Amino acid sequence: MHCGVPELDCGEYMFIFSQAWKQLGRHPWRSLLLLLVSLIVAMWSTFGGAVVHENTKARTETLDKQSATAVVRPSSSLLQTRQGDDSSWTDHYLSWSDYDKLASAAQTKGVQYKYTVAESIPVRQSASIQAITTDSTSKASEDKTGGNLTLQSFYTSEAAQVNEYGTYKVIEGKGLDYSNSLAQNVLVSEELAKKNNLKVGSTIKIGNPTDSETTYEYTVCGIYRYTSNPDNALGDDAKFAKDNRNNVLYTTYTTFAINGLDTTDGKGWSVPDLNVVFTFENRSDIDKFAAALKADLPKGMEVSSPTIKHYMQSIEALNTLSETTRIVMIVLWICGALALIGLVLLAALPRSNEIGMALLVGVSKGRIAWQFMLETLFPTLIGLAIGITIGATCANPLAGALNAQHSVHATGGLIWQAIWIGALACIALSAIAGIRVAAFRTMRMFQSPYISDSATSEE
Q1: Phi and psi at residue 283, in whole multiples of 5°?
Q2: The whole model's pTM is what?
Q3: How far apart are CA 254 and CA 257, in angstroms?
């Protein structure tokens, strides 16, 4: 009975298998090292491949699906000159007429967009709500700063998603109702609510930045908590209380406008900080938009994309992990290959006597080569299978433990790629063992060790 391979029947194969297993058992530590090195290389290659693939996907395919928004805001260098107790800073604010000019420039270049609005002013505190302060907070009067709180309004939820203070979620109560033009509601931070013992339904009173006699009354509809921390957002490290993002009150643009705060003739801190958020169909349109506005941008202003910037910040940890795993994979491949080749040679090279004696008793080189190859294949293939399984199933937990801050999963294509490449590597290693047998010179059988051994056995 033959198994499809010339000259060797099934019984002979079973004998070769059993001899290979016995040989592995005679050298358990060497066999275990072959298995462990194969396992470690396979596991990290699968995990590292998943991380690199996810990072590439995040920076291309997923990035292209991000909301394409752009804003025209002060550059970092201009922001460094800002003084929270100097109302002349409002001279840098863009007005509706400024935005009309910029919008016309973009339309002239054929850039299509939609837009929404965010607008804010500092407001004065009252007995019903006191701002959060620290020892380092400036003691400048509200006549100088416009107030120790900030009232930030949004026209739509899309505007809130690109909030300069960071994204937030409502943890108590409900969010803002952008469709209700009569609502006088605000959201307060959990820190501010705790300081003032505010709850959902509490009423607060705040004052106009330049007219302390003018006040506005709002109902707390919800309490929020920040879920992101943009680079320029300040917390307890803010010099002025109004710049501490935990002192920001959120309301709708409609409420803001009904209270007369969206004014075009304000002075000092009563001039609203108007931020028009442009939305495009394609991310590439942001570059076209920036190019179209370049000649008309006021000094110190720049075009940026809050959503893209926030997204890129969110995958920084993943990118760092990807670069690290890539380096580790290269080092591991080199060291692993050298270790495996060394172990295979260590198992095959010193066995000249064994090969010679087997040939003297009539065993063919092909049969000996099969045994040597199986001695390499068994532990490396087992290590490969276990390593790929661990790498694939533990990719996401391991990435989390390594602070990837992003989901990482081994795709089916990646797993199959690891299987085929790993299997080819195992075959290549076993071929080295087989070549050792093929390279054995038959003439060595007639040298004294073999002759004496043979003669002794005949006697």
Answers
A1: -65, -30
A2: 0.72
A3: 5
